[in-house]
Specification:
- The complex is a heterodimer of chains A (about 170) and B (about 300).
- Chain A has about 170 residues and is an alpha+beta fold.
- Chain A folds into two domains: about 5-75, Ubiquitin-like (UB roll) (Roll), CATH 3.10.20.30; about 75-170, Orthogonal Bundle (DNA polymerase, domain 1), CATH 1.10.150.
- In chain A, about 35% of the residues lie in helices and about 10% in strands.
- In chain A, a hairpin with a 2-residue loop joins strand 3 and strand 4.
- Chain A is globular.
- Helix content of chain B is about 40%, strand content about 20%.
- Chain B has helices at about 10-20, 30-35, 70-80, 85-90, 95-100, 105-110, 115-125, 140-145, 215-225, 230-235, 240-250, 265-295; strands at about 1-5, 25, 45, 55-60, 65, 125-130, 135-140, 145, 150, 160-165, 170-175, 185-195, 200-205.
- In chain B, strands 4-5-10-6-7 form a five-stranded antiparallel beta sheet. In chain B, strands 1-3-2 form a three-stranded parallel beta sheet, covered by helices on one side. A three-stranded antiparallel beta sheet of chain B has the order 11-12-13.
- In chain B, strand 4 (about 55-60) and strand 5 form a beta hairpin.
- In chain B, helix 4 packs antiparallel against helix 7 (about 115-125), helix 9 (about 215-225) runs antiparallel to helix 11 (about 240-250) and helix 11 (about 240-250) crosses helix 12.
- The termini of chain B are far apart.
- The relative contact order of chain B is 0.11.
- Classes of the chains: A alpha+beta (about 170), B alpha+beta (about 300).
- At the A-B interface, strand 4 of A face helix 2 and helix 5 of B.
- Bound molecules: flavin-adenine dinucleotide and FE2/S2 (inorganic) cluster (2 copies).
- Flavin-adenine dinucleotide sits at the interface of chains B and A.
- The site of one FE2/S2 (inorganic) cluster (FES) has 12 residues of chain A, from loops.
């Protein structure tokens, strides 16, 4: 079947999609967007987290056909999404990162990086709804994302850093 | 495989009548795992995401009529007042990503004994609204679970909504697992005090082939509370009484040994959870009574 939906602001069409295929597979294997990672295909690890009509979901648990006509934001579109949300004009430098991405780098929250795309999408969603989260809020918001490398402390640091920078800027 | 994408409830019922083997998919948090792991290759997937009615809830006399596909996140945000037990249970489901997609209709469809909505629905009192092109029927939730991962739906039926009694007293939910997120219950317990009818209802998860009520424990407690005039006095529940309530709740279990826990552990844990949830709920009831008397 054919699936039409919007990914990172751009209309996309995927053809020859098998009816039982996941949104994650379509993104990675048919649309050439390998940012969302595939680690478990059962909703346990969160490395495939994307926004579906604004809501963070595991892309591995959305049937491709369910995305028809919907808007998806992946880690590849996060920087543009964050700029748009902040009411700023589109990026001139395509390498410019979103504030959450920059904070992950600055805080040393990335090791192998496999969990990072999902964590970024989840953390960005948290800060969108709660600009000044408590540690408990951060833990809760990221509880569906597993990391086998960092021990999570640097990830918490990164989210606190992003929140603090947004607070100073705002 | 065919992907059926009805745009309205009527179309969905017609599609299910025409293709009774079609597998409905709402949040997909059970269905997609089965497909990804090749445990299931349905001939037809019946997508419910486009049916707006399933994502709404409304007041219906003393009930909340909860659309089958309303995700847990919205139950937590919007229904903590009338459905406190279900909102508590919803908070323990999976992770934010899972709660953003997963639904009570899906929990009922899967009918896993470990589903977290079940103890809360049993304790609150609820009917499953099952519909087909032949008409609509209400199935009391205790009759809905017919076996391990089996339910009372006919092949041409879909769940339209769940009608859940609005709370008339405190409700509690407790779940045993290895951590706070992403945990299938080792076992779970829901409890609702119903001061208007002077009754208590319970629900046990993951400790029998299906979710069950602990009826002997409910009857014992209701009688004891009445005998001692505790509903009126708002005095504490005597510890011996709470303990016996817990033991009777454990007696309602018919658990198995599996990787998550032994049968013996489950029985013990249910007794402890029954006693504790009673303590929490009764404290809340007494708090309310005291406020009411002072006002
Ligand atoms: C990582 C992870 C963690 C989880 N943690 C928990 C947990 O803590 N507690 C818990 O209870 N569950 C948990 N689950 C299981 C699952 O999320 C729940 O059972 C959820 O309620 C399913 O809802 P859904 O809308 O996603 O269902 P779906 O997957 O869409 O459907 C589930 C079943 O119900 C049927 N169905 C769906 N809607 C209808 C309808 N309207 N009428 C008839 N049949 C229907 C489907 O055909 C299917 O058989 C978890 C799952 C994952 C992947
Ligand atoms: S790959 Fe989707 S949650 Fe792990
Ligand atoms: S950095 Fe390796 S899994 Fe998180």
């Amino acid at each position: 079947m054919r699936v039409n939906f919007t990914v990172n602001g751009r209309p996309q069409q995927a053809d020859d999609v098998w009816e039982g295929e996941s949104l994650l597979y379509v993104l990675r294997e048919r649309l050439g967007l390998p940012g969302s990672k595939n680690a478990c295909e059962q909703g346990e690890c969160g490395s495939c987290t994307v926004r579906l009509d604004g809501v963070p979901v595991c892309a591995c648990l959305v049937a491709a056909g369910q995305a028809e006509g919907r808007e998806v934001v992946t880690v590849e579109g996060l920087a543009a999404y964050a700029r748009h949300r902040a009411g700023r004009p589109p990026r001139e430098d395509p390498a410019e990162l979103s504030p959450v991405q920059q904070a992950f780098i600055d805080a040393g929250a990335v090791q192998c990086g496999f969990c990072t795309p999902g964590l970024l999408v989840a953390a960005d969603d948290l800060l969108e709804h709660n600009p000044d989260p408590s540690d408990a809020d951060i833990r809760e918001a990221l509880s569906g994302n597993l990391c086998r490398c960092t021990g999570y402390e640097k990830i918490l640091d990164a989210v606190r850093l992003a929140a603090a920078r947004a607070g100073e800027a705002g | 495989m065919d992907f059926l994408r009805p745009g309205s409830w009527e179309e969905a019922l017609a599609a299910k009548a025409e293709h009774p083997t079609a597998v409905p998919i709402a949040g997909g948090t059970d269905v997609m795992v089965e497909i990804n792991f090749d445990h299931r290759r349905p001939e037809y997937l019946l997508d419910l995401n486009r049916i707006g009615d399933l994502y709404e809830w409304g007041d219906d006399a003393g009930d909340v009529r909860l659309g089958a596909a309303v995700p847990y996140t919205r139950i937590i945000e919007e229904l903590g007042g009338p459905l406190p037990g279900l909102a508590l249970a919803s908070r323990t489901v999976g992770s934010p990503q899972i709660r953003n997609r997963g639904s009570v209709g899906g929990n009922l469809g899967a009918a896993s004994p470990a589903g977290d909505a079940h103890p809360a629905l049993l304790a609150a009192g609820a009917d499953v609204e099952a519909a087909s092109v032949r008409g609509t029927r209400l199935i009391p939730v205790e009759e809905f679970y017919t076996g391990v991962k089996r339910n009372a739906l006919a092949p041409d039926e879909l769940i339209r909504a769940v009608r859940i009694r609005k709370a008339d007293g405190p409700q509690q939910f407790s779940k045993v697992g290895t951590r706070n997120a992403m945990v299938i219950a080792v076992c779970a317990f829901g409890l609702a005090l119903h001061p208007e009818t002077r009754t208590v209802r319970t629900g046990i998860g993951s400790a029998a082939p299906t979710p069950v009520r602990a009826r002997a424990a409910e009857d014992f407690l209701a009688a004891a509370l009445a005998d001692e005039g505790l509903w009126e006095s708002g005095a504490p529940v005597p510890p011996a009484l709470a303990r016996q309530f817990g033991e009777l709740a454990a007696g309602a279990c018919n658990p198995i040994d599996d990787v998550r826990g032994s049968a013996r552990y489950r029985r013990h844990a249910v007794a402890v959870m029954a006693r504790r949830t009673l303590g929490w709920a009764w404290d809340a009831y007494r708090g309310r009574e005291r406020t009411a008397r002072c006002a």
